[in-house]
Amino acid sequence: MYAVIKTGGKQYKVTTGQKLKIEQIPADIGQEIILDCVLMIKSEERVIIGQPTVYGASVKTTILNHGKHDKVKIFKIRRRKHYQKHQGHRQRYTEIFIKDINFNDSI
Predict the structure, then answer these.
(1) Which domain holds residue 88?
(2) Which residue, 91, 18, 92, is CA-closest to 61?
(3) Where are the beta strands (DSSP E) in the chain?
(4) How many structural domains are present in the chain?
């Protein structure tokens, strides 16, 4: 069984017991959060696709830690204009553990 969730403007395919790095969520480490924007659920016998989300579906997660990804270096140059710009960026993330995928099976 797996689900497709949307968080932070991105979509992720998740299964129970999976660790995942998503866009930063303002919550404490060890806190349980429920992601309710579930776009699709695939169980053993059928596929449920939401319009746009699956009604009554949720994914229960636990926050493991917060951090920053590796630095991305940005270099801009205009040829023959004597213009160079150096810049760097480190995106923040939240690592979560997928505990359970819940949905109403009577639908």
Answers:
(1) 2-102
(2) 18
(3) 2-7, 10-15, 19-23, 32-35, 38-42, 47-49, 58-68, 72-78, 83-89, 92-102
(4) 1
- Whole-number Cα distances in Å, 4 to 29, 36, 75, 99: 24, 11, 35, 15
Pairing, β 19-23 against β 92-102? antiparallel
pTM for the structure as a whole: 0.85
For the stretch 14-27, pLDDT in tens is 999 999 999 999 99
CA-to-CA distance for 56 and 92, rounded, in angstroms?
30
Contacts of 36 (CB under 8 A, 6+ apart): 53, 57, 58, 59
Residue 107 lies in a domain: no
Does residue 68 lie within any of the structural domains? yes
CA dist 70 and 90 (Å) reads 6
In a domain, 8, yes or no: yes
Tokens of 40: 């699709």
Say which residue the tokens 């810049």 belong to: 87
